[in-house]
Amino acid sequence: MSLIVQKYGGSSVADLDKIRFVAEKVKKYWQAGHKLVVVVSAMGKTTDTLLSMAHSICSSPPERELDMLLATGEQVSVALLCMALFDKGVSAISLTGGQAGIITTGMHTKAKIVHIEVSRILRYLEEGKVVVVAGFQGKTANEDITTLGRGGSDTTACALAAALRADFCEIYTDVNGVYTADPRVVPGARKIPYISYDEMSEMANLGAKVLQLRAVDFSQRYGVRVHVRSTFCEEEGTWVEEVSAMEDVKVKAVTHTREVMKVVLLGVPNQPGVAASIFKVLSDFSVFIDMIIQSEGRGTEKDVAFVVTKEDEGKARRAVARLGEIISFREVKFDDSMGKISIVGAGIASDPRIAYRMFSTLARIGANIDMISTSNLRISCLIPRDRVEEAVRALHEEFIGEGEVILNGGS
Length: 411
Prior knowledge:
Blueprint (H helix, E strand, L loop, with lengths): L2 E6 L7 H16 L3 E6 L5 H12 L5 H25 L4 E4 L6 E3 L8 E4 L2 H8 L3 E5 L2 E3 L5 E3 L4 H13 L3 E6 L20 E3 H9 L7 H10 L3 E5 L7 E4 L11 E5 L2 E10 L4 H11 L4 E6 L6 E9 L3 H11 L7 E5 L2 E7 L7 H13 L6 E4 L3 E7 L3 H12 L12
Parallel strand pairs: 1-2, 1-9, 2-6, 3-6, 9-11, 10-12
Antiparallel strand pairs: 4-5, 7-8, 11-12, 13-18, 14-16, 14-17, 15-16, 18-20, 19-20
Helix pairs in contact: 1-3, 2-3, 5-7, 6-7, 8-9, 10-11
């Protein structure tokens, strides 16, 4: 029998009937003799509701107190799921992230896991219990509650699977796997049965919300096989694992996000060390940077543009204000009218025709490209937000179309 870590997202436990449904699924695994650790997110939109409450009572809530508040959402879920399991005759126990031994850094709202002490979980598993762990949270060495950022329950599950050396980790959600594009935007998008860690990491980084980036990184680092699948059907989903590359595999998927903001610093001093100063301050404020462009110098000045997530907008504005105390610049512009669209696949950089086809497709639909960034696995373009969905459909038709996706690997 296997040791399995399962994670159920907020949509999977959105109400009491769904919690009972999840409890029945867990019961079947338990009755089959598997050892189970179940990670649960907050119910439905609970986290959004708690955030709204926080910002209604305080314009800029202290991040330590935000973590104290937000962690309660998952604690409600684990307690209710354990009660549902008890009602079905299943021996189970609920644990907060801290009780489960998840030790994190002290960076509130975006803490990183530094260690997991699994002895308590292993003891309960040996007693035949299902261990239900609150996702998205941990504690510092000083016993402060921390949260891991949006999608943090994925990271909790994959990190626990790594620490426990689980046979695999199942991520249950409301979609049946990873698709070649968002099915809500591209009705013809198709499920990808197998995808490499590297490709999944790029997709997560570029806006695919099915699996958190840090969860993929944990899984790759420790060799955890991840199965992304639907809570509400028994069909196989997508396996994320190490897969062998094939020379003819190119574009695997099209991803997009509208949750970005472009920041432009105009009239920055054209001298050595200025870029380092800019991004040092952004780093100090824990602002995640995606694309970066620096213009050619114009005498004593140049311009610097970069892209941040909408989630980091407040921190980016504070960081820029701090920058104004360190270096001189003529003006700053914040532009939230953009979206980011990307193509992802192994070997993209090795074929220059792919970039040409992407740019030609965007030109054909009249979507002007504002910024471009590339890696070996993806090409990303910043375009007007109101053209994003049309661009997704056009690029999906260009690179993936209605034919079969070329797949590699297998389990």
